[in-house]
Amino acid sequence: MQLTAKDIRMNAHAANKDEALAVLGGVLVEDALTTPEYLQGLKDREAQSATYLGQGIAIPHGTPTSRDAIMQTGVRLVHFADGVVWNDEGDVVYLAAVIAAKSDEHLQVLKQLTKVLSDDVSDKVKSAKTPKDVLAIIQGVPLSFLLHENLIKQDDGAKDSDALYFTALNALKSSGVINGISALPSQSTSLVNNIRCITIQGKSEQINQSALAIAIAKENITPKAVAVVVANEHLDAKKLSQAYDAMLDDEFATAVDGADTAKIIELLGAESSQSWVAKTAIILNEHGLHARPATALSSLAKEANGEIKVAVDDGFYVSAKSLSRLLSLGAVRGQTLKFIAEPDTDAVAHLDKLTQAVADGLGESVQALAATTSANEAAPIVLDFSDKASPIVKGEKSLATTASSGLAVGEAHVVRQMRFEYPATSSDPKAEFSRLMNAIEVAKQELSKTISHAKSAAIAKIFTAHLALLEDEEITFGAKDGIDDGLSAEAAWHAHIETMAKLQSSVANHLLAERAADLRDVGQKVLSALTGQKLPSEPDSPYVLIKEDLMPSDVASLDPARVAGILTAVGGASSHSAIVARALGIPALVGAGAEVLNIDQGAKVLMNAGEGWFVVEPSEAQIESCQKEQLALKERKRIAHQHAHEPAITQDGHRVEVAVNLGNVDNTKPAVDNGAEAVGLLRTELVFMAHRQVPDIDTQIRDYEKVFDVLEGKPLVVRTLDVGGDKPLPYLPMPSEDNPFLGVRGIRLTLKQPELLKNQLIALIRASKGRDLRIMFPMVGQLEEWTQARAILDEVLAEYPHDNLQVGIMIEVPSAAIMANAFAKAVDFFSIGTNDLTQYTLAIDRGHPILSKDADGLHPSILTLIDHTVKAAHAHGKWVGVCGELAGDEKAVPILMGLGVDELSMSVSSIALVKDQIRGLNLADCQYLAKRALACQTASDVRALTDKDRS
Questions:
Q1: Average pLDDT rounded to a whole number, residues 809-831
Q2: Is the pLDDT of residue 371 over 70?
Q3: Alpha carbon of residue 513 to chain centroid
Q4: Would residue 290 show up in a list of annotated catalytic residues for this protein?
Q5: Can 936 be counted among the known catalytic residues?
Q6: I need a labelling partner for 774 at 20 to 30 A (CA). Which of 48, 330, 376, 909 fits?
Q7: Collapsing DSSP states into helix, strand and coil, what is residue 504?
């Protein structure tokens, strides 16, 4: 809201305050801001507390009960030429700013109005003759150059000057110094070796106040600090010159090198309150710190002889005793007031009284904010739940989380963050935005090419998600704000991606939090296109890749013949990178801790990813032992593959069907060639992801026919479309959900889009041509969902009959397992998805970097649910399969068999080995083992049982 000449009335006359209020009420009615009843609210407010602001200015406004008379929020200025006595102290008002406020839109005008009172303007207010005179008084600003401790920032994570520039710019924005610096001329210069200075000039419409902000890096980078000077037409050139002199001094350079912000503040002579005692309180008043609560606060602060200052959030301090200064803060509900008291005065003890008064509402009824901390509470301590990794000792085992099993020995190839070189600023936003859009298009074309040449469906899925990110306007256009503020395309894009990645990393759902790596991966592709700098390629010789976090494109570009293994400092077992590593059969350990980044380049590294440990500089005996294990595993695989097409029959004659999990229809033949007796899970969402739009019925038929034709009569179990959670479809946008894993996903989504489900069912039945088809619905948790889905299928079957069809559900939600007996009466089979069943039962995200190791499908609670499900199914003559990661887990196989599971479905690489394992087992022994497992207390106890059984 901005005041203009039409908002000002001149030459008003009133004999007393009551007459003045009547004039003011009439102005509001005339401008259709209020009804006549609002006048009573103005009178009631004055009866409670006078609204005199100072220097001949008053701010009359209504009470909360009079807000019903407000038609729209507005402020009008009325000049009384002869003045009006306003209070018992005899203060005379010449200018009244009458307020009708439904919300806080008027606060900006109040801030502008109260800023005037920093100078002596009483004579100007009294003698004003025209609206232009009043506007000149309000808009007049003295020369200034702000030096304040809140604009001196240390950036602990800055890796380059662009990050420092963004930190300084953000400090200026968050403190209200600048609104936007789009297309403003800027000049960059190096003051001394370790300090870079950027000067930006503009008008007061964009730069509210001339100021200096400095961002200092904690780490030793060049430059160590970036100073940003913003200057408008009211710049105090003398203060700026003094600041330059200070920054050019050797003592200042030394302080910068030591990241000594206190010394920097001292040398600049910046406003500081470091020795003052501080207390905070949260504003709970519905309309913020408006006149009435501000008056109460000012009066309370004046009871102390010592000085008390207050700031909003990390803004600048003003005197808490000055009503005009308090109103100039423009504080709203939910913001934090930080009070500081002059040391060694009564003001220190008075802080508790002030903060309690704010918490109580300063005379107004207030309600607590949802999920806020106590108003008097200091800044909360952020708890660190991360596992404290032990230092890496050469020759000894260090632990990490298994992402992809296997053994590896190779030289360390430590890859650190790539540095892109580019200018920080630009004066041509239009050209920069065009460059960014072109670079995004180049990155999209590269991704499309990667998807079409993907080595597996899992890789295609990852890069389809990356392509979706670049087609998301929130991401692609989010950098435009930075470009409009004067940043180069590269700097704006980098800052925006980092902001989004940090936000993604902080979300409560840790599987989603790990997707920050995907954002940074996409970000690097675009930066590469913008700068022309090529991303680093892998070495020629076999190696163990070591990085802080592995981006999916890193894994997808690896050649398994040359890379021995992967070791990362952070990450979880269900990150996209881990999924792709498993798909490529590359041994991988994640979450090993930051110490791995200090491993010497070229050092020998031994990994046992299956058992979750690695050794730096292993002994010859350790290497020899690992190599023997590798040879033994290789020989076992060779023998297993020779017999891959033989059935999996135990030594006492019990047969278990061993099937394959598929995401790519073109992988059916390799699966059959490796011994798959059926497809136990066709992930149709991955089939959908292979297309740029929702595939129609004919397109789906062609995809599904490929699988049926290769299977030659073997069973095909198809999961209907399962999207949502971490599996979005780029062409099927979904509303944002706080917890998508507990939201609209799986059958819940397709029941809300019945045509989508119906078309898929038509395509499956037509493609099968009477062959063995088994359809299952995902994420079913309630009988009603099954009934609705089955009804849609029955509609389809009425038109397209099928005599060789079975229909079941996935057991992924604990409620379905608990109600297995009820479901078993209706379905033809169950397929247990142990991945989701585990995380939902244990309430642990499988991708959580700390807790993922505890999300073990062999936990007794999961085994109990599986046991209950199998017994319910068999009681009704139905069969049960397992299609989660547990089905291919060597330690889980005998237990699952002992529980009575009829089918195990797994990745192609596990089929031959699992069939070979089953042939060496005895069902009676497996049943005894399962019984003992159900009696265990922990997952580790269960795994210990299997170790004993194998020994």
A1: 97
A2: no
A3: 6
A4: yes
A5: no
A6: 909
A7: helix
